[in-house]
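Weekly sync, protein design subgroup
Attendees: M.S., D.O., the rotation student, P.L. (late)

Item 1: inverse folding check
M.S. brought a backbone from last month's batch and wanted to see whether the design step gives back something sensible before we order anything. D.O. pointed out we never logged the input encoding, so this time it goes straight into the notes. Structure tokens as presented (459 positions):
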């Protein structure tokens, strides 16, 4: 265990030191890209954190390979590096992803170019043998080498994009990765202890160095963030998470295990999905939403889960903690199957689900109470209930907009035709639509905007 911790510590130190350097260089030379419409932050922020994380991973893996045997006088990771082609392929694929991510962060590549780079990186992994050979469902073997390669590429690309999709709040991806991979490390470590390979395997080592890289990067990414990991960091995180999961699920046969070895047969296939539940859910909803609207599944929008939490009324900090909580509940629940009876796991998951759901939906209940108080006060049926509310809370934005729409005069048929013609011919002159008469103009209600709201509207 201590050598896993040493690898994680090396990754964390290198990642932190280079994150500070990347932040200073990015600030000095103004390497921060322009703020996009879907972004939550309001100040341009460098997105070079992925480079620092990649350096931490590389240094830690090379240290475990070349330096640890000199320190311990025993090559504990001998079996991990017995096939160096696997490790070299992982580092090469990570380098491809980081280069593409950095170029995208600086110059905004189109989605087809990014997808092509992801497929190349995933194909390199599969070509060098880091691939799904069997599925841990009764020892089911994949039919052919071509099918194995295709499934591996699809799995890696899916996980990379799923992780990248949730990278929208300060500290979100790094924190979720630490929690999820912490759970997965415990599982892979226990799994290795029951196998012929001892306590050292590739999945546990990759997971440890990834946790270290995220720990070193997180201090500069915590809200308000001074540095973002960008697409380079998010795609790198997804690549390594997928690689560690494939290293476990593709090389064991849970049919040969039982409760005496503390490994239920379904856990190897369930846990990788459990630790990725939040990214995969957001990815699935985004693809469904965009395809149903006739758009590309990789087109950007501002309807991700973290955007919805902010729109519900959560603060930036609370939204991140809610993601952490959901990830921990689902991942820990799956891990507990290794150690405790099933009914204890079900109880833990039920309690965690209720608590997380209550925290997630809390702003809606608070909003309903404020709206009911405002409506009751307007009807004159109660005492001044709004006396304890701040000025922005005295009004409901939806109600005010509805009143203004009701009071505004309905445009004539000629005016509607003028607007429709202008929309069909955007290159022509702007239409001249008569303004609303002063006698019909509704009174402007007090503004609901606040610091957080202005930040979200600009994101």
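Designed sequence read out in the meeting:
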């Amino acid at each position: 265990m201590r050598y896993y911790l040493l690898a994680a510590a090396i990754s964390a130190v290198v990642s932190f030191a280079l994150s500070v350097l990347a932040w200073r260089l990015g600030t000095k030379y103004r390497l921060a890209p322009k703020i996009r419409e879907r972004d939550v932050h309001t100040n341009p922020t460098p997105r070079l954190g992925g480079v620092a994380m990649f350096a931490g991973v590389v240094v830690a893996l090379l240290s475990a390979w070349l330096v640890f045997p000199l320190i311990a006088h025993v090559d504990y990771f001998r079996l991990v590096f017995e096939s160096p082609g696997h490790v070299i392929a992982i580092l090469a694929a990570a380098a491809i992803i980081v280069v593409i991510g950095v170029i995208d962060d600086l110059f905004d590549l189109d989605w087809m170019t990014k997808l092509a780079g992801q497929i190349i990186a995933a194909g390199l992994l599969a070509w060098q043998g880091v691939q799904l050979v069997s599925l841990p469902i009764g020892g089911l073997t994949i039919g052919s080498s071509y099918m194995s390669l295709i499934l591996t590429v699809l799995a890696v690309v899916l996980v990379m994009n799923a992780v990248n999709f949730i990278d929208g709040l300060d500290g979100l991806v790094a924190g979720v990765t630490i929690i999820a991979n912490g759970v997965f490390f415990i599982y892979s470590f226990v799994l290795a202890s029951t196998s012929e390979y001892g306590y050292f395997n590739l999945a546990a080592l990759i997971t440890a160095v990834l946790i270290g890289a995220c720990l070193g990067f997180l201090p500069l990414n915590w809200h308000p963030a001074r540095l973002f990991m960008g697409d380079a960091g998010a795609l790198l995180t997804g690549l390594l998470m997928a690689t560690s999961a494939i290293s476990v699920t593709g090389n064991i046969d849970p049919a040969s295990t039982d409760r005496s070895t503390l490994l239920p047969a379904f856990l190897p296939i369930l846990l990788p999905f459990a630790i990725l539940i939040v990214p995969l859910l957001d990815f699935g909803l985004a693809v469904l939403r965009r395809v149903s609207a006739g758009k590309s599944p990789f087109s950007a929008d501002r309807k991700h889960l973290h955007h919805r939490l902010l729109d519900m009324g959560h603060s930036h900090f609370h939204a991140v903690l809610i993601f952490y909580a959901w990830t921990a509940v689902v991942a820990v629940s799956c891990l507990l199957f290794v150690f405790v009876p099933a009914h204890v796991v079900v109880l833990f998951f039920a309690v965690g689900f209720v608590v997380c759901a209550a925290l997630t939906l809390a702003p809606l209940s608070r909003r309903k109470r404020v709206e009911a108080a405002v409506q009751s006060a307007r009807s004159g049926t109660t005492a001044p209930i709004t006396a304890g509310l701040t000025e922005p809370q005295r009004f409901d934005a939806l109600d005010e907009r509805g009143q203004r729409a009701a009071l505004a005069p309905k445009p004539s048929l000629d005016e509607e035709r003028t607007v429709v013609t202008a929309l069909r011919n955007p290159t022509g002159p702007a239409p001249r639509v008569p303004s609303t008469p002063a006698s019909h103009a509704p009174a402007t209600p007090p503004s609901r905007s606040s610091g957080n709201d202005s930040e979200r509207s600009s994101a």
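Discussion: The two ends are 43 Å apart (CA to CA). Residues 105 and 156 are 21 Å apart (CA to CA).
Action: P.L. to compare against the previous round before Friday.
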